[in-house]
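In the current project phase, the collection of sequences with tokenised folds has grown. One resulting record follows, to show the layout:
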Amino acid sequence: MNLQDQLLPLKEKLQKAIELELATIPPYLTALFSMRPGSNAMASSIIRSVVMEEMLHMLLAGNLLSAVGGNVKLGKDNIPVYPVQMEFQGKQFKNRQFDIHLAAFSQDTINVFLQIELPDGWAVAPLEFDKITVPGLTIGEFYRGIKEDLMDLCKTYGEQNVFTGKKENQISEEYFWRGGGTPIVITSLGTASAAIDLIIEQGEGTTEPIAVKAFNFSTTDEVPHYFRFNEIYHGRLYTPQDDPHLPPTGNVIDIDYNAIFPIKTSCKSSDLLQFPALSYLNNLFNTNYATMLSQLEEGFNGNPAAFYTAILNGMHKLSPLAYNLVQLPIPGDPQGRHAAPSFEWHRDHE
């Protein structure tokens, strides 16, 4: 096998990484959109911070794929359809499966988020559809496998032959990324490793499995994703002295699971067809969602100027539409549920 043959499975993993990171964003956003204005200030801030970092992770995965000469795909066939099921395949968790819905903010929803961000080495009972199959135990192990693949290829063929993509076709700091961390342009094994480590550390708090290297709250400025969601789940912040394997013991967080709009779980565009006003808003949201993803794909594949439009315009158009939609009851719904963005690929962008 030559280098190009050996790059193919790596490119497939990196495309899967992009889809994996993208799959987490709509559920987190949906929980955020469902909160009534003025409520759950700390919880909404925590979720928003995780969303920003997941977006960064998706774009870093795109940078990695572009750097090794791959083509980023963010089209109709690459976006999740909810409820979606992630499978982390491995010896310890090979039967671990859970459904991820677009659901309102609740303790059950936060519990699902905890499962998504589960660190390596933490055996937690599984939660009982489209599938996203990740060839590893957890997100962290999956990325560590990608890093090992890159190291092997660089050792065999040299970094200059592995990282052949145009750096102009990557998200860089010039796009003024807001959130924890900044985009890393991938040109070498060192920059690739730094990007992968950032993804793992923000999610799990360490580049090593927590069972091997204990996480220490006193040595970090920001709590990783799993622990941030655990703070919401338990209604308390962590202190520097807390044991990561135990619930947080710090200041109480004001959590009100009743201060939400009762949105329909995993709402579909087909659920709203007979209600023109709701259908229009949802289709408009989905049109902007699909446009933003198309522009990101265009940027990664040869037109970097599209990044500006996607990031500076596309992302900012979604929130107002979503907040308008979740406030509208579905007429005649026996449970009094409200509409919600369906995060589907609108037909105008097929």
The chain has two domains: 3-234, 269-349. Residues 3-234 form a domain with the Ferritin fold (CATH 1.20.1260.10).
